[in-house]
């Protein structure tokens, strides 16, 4: 299986960077593509697993290709289309394109070409080859709920902390954290951040042993405080005010301009400050949407169209003329009694080349003497007879 985790120096030397795109511009394109997948999946009532899987495909794809070669919005639709199949929440390609058209302006949607469906279907084969058909992806959501069940404390504060950590996991999809660390590490770091912001201090937890200095040591060992703060700061950078304009359709540096009217603007509120991570505002908490809440309606079938009936077969013609009379041939019958039947004699049997010899077959094996049976002892007595009780 391929290894999908990279160092920061590898994330700075991507195909887009080698193609002349700065790292800041590439991070902005990744954020816009991930946000577009999240908005499209939310509008189509897809579960969080499907949306997160599509975003991970998106980030992995651009570790091998450039934004200059493949437009980000076509790739985002293709990743969401493939993620729906993998997570068993399939959506039609034309429906995804229809929602994408409602979220993008005409200039951005023009990158889909004349036949958007054919563009997405063609890019799907390239996406499968790029991710090496490694379709199963794990996300921090399951680990977040698993770790929260082991913590002890005020249930109200714990629920608030889990809700805030869930929001941080959703927002972390706009970063490259899924290309840097395993989902277990991301879940621990964002629970740590949510605990500091919600002022929920973990004092005790289930399964605690003397060697555990912190609650996350029971789940993931050797996590340093520097690593936790680095992950937290990468997420908190999303809430800082943006100094650069949003990217255009082509991966080139563009000047600041007004956003289009029909494009949705991401409402992000910065989180409040808490130690040890310096923060300035509080994030917007989004409710957790379980996968069971997603209801898939059966496809609607238009029954108005019916196949036309077969045309009536022409009647076969009826012949009324009588058939022609043909006289049957008659063989002459000879006069007198029939001749007697004469059977030919069988031909004589030719003499054989060799006369028959009546000799018994040779005895190839000498007779084996009968071996005596091994000696046997006396027959052991059987069980005693069962007493007979007559019926009353």
Low-confidence stretches: 252-281, 289-310
Order of helices and strands: HHHHHHHHHHHH
Fraction in helix? 25-40%
Rg over alpha carbons: 43 Å
Per the principal axes of the C-alpha atoms, what is the gross shape?
flat
Q: Can you count the beta strands? A: 0
**Average pLDDT across residues?**
78
What does this structure look like?
By secondary structure, the chain is mainly α. Helices cover 37% and strands 0% of the residues. The protein contains twelve helices and no strands. Helix 11 crosses helix 12. The chain is flat and about 130 Å long. It starts with 7 loop residues before the first helix and ends in a 156-residue tail after the last helix. Residues 252-281 and 289-310 have low confidence and may be disordered.
């Amino acid at each position: 299986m391929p290894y999908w985790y990279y160092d920061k120096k590898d994330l700075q030397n991507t195909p887009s960077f080698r193609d002349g795109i700065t790292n800041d511009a590439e991070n902005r394109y990744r954020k816009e593509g991930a946000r577009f997948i999240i908005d499209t999946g939310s509008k189509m009532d897809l579960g969080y697993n499907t949306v997160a899987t599509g975003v991970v495909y998106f980030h992995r794809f651009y570790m091998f290709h450039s934004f200059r070669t493949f437009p980000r919005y076509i790739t985002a639709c293709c990743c969401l289309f493939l993620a729906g199949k993998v997570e068993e929440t399939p959506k039609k390609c034309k429906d995804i394109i229809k929602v994408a058209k409602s979220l993008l302006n005409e200039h951005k949607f023009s990158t889909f070409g004349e036949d958007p469906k054919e563009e997405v279907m063609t890019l799907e084969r390239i996406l499968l080859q790029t991710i090496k058909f490694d379709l199963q992806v794990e996300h921090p959501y399951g680990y977040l709920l698993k770790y929260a069940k082991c913590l002890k404390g005020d249930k109200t504060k714990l629920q608030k902390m889990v809700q805030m950590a869930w929001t941080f996991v959703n927002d972390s999809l706009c970063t490259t954290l899924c290309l840097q660390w395993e989902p277990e590490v991301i879940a621990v770091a964002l629970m740590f951040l949510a605990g500091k912001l919600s002022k929920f201090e973990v004092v005790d937890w289930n399964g605690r042993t003397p060697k555990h200095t912190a609650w996350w040591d029971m789940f993931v060992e050797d996590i340093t405080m520097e690593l936790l703060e680095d992950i937290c700061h990468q997420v908190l950078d999303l809430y800082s005010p943006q100094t650069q304009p949003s990217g255009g359709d082509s991966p080139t540096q563009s000047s600041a301009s007004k956003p289009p009217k029909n494009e949705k603007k991401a409402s992000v509120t910065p989180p409040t400050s808490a130690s040890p991570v310096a923060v300035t505002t509080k994030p917007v908490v989004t409710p957790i949407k379980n996968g069971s809440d997603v209801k898939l309606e059966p496809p609607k079938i238009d029954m108005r169209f019916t196949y036309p009936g077969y045309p009536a077969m022409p009647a076969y013609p009826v012949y009324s003329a009588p058939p022609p009379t043909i006289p049957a041939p008659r063989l002459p019958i000879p006069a007198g009694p029939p001749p007697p039947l004469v059977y030919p004699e069988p031909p004589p049997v030719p003499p054989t080349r060799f006369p028959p010899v009546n000799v018994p077959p040779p005895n190839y094996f000498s007779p084996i003497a009968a071996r005596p049976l091994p000696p046997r002892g006396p027959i052991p007595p059987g069980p005693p007879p069962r007493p007979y009780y007559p019926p009353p």
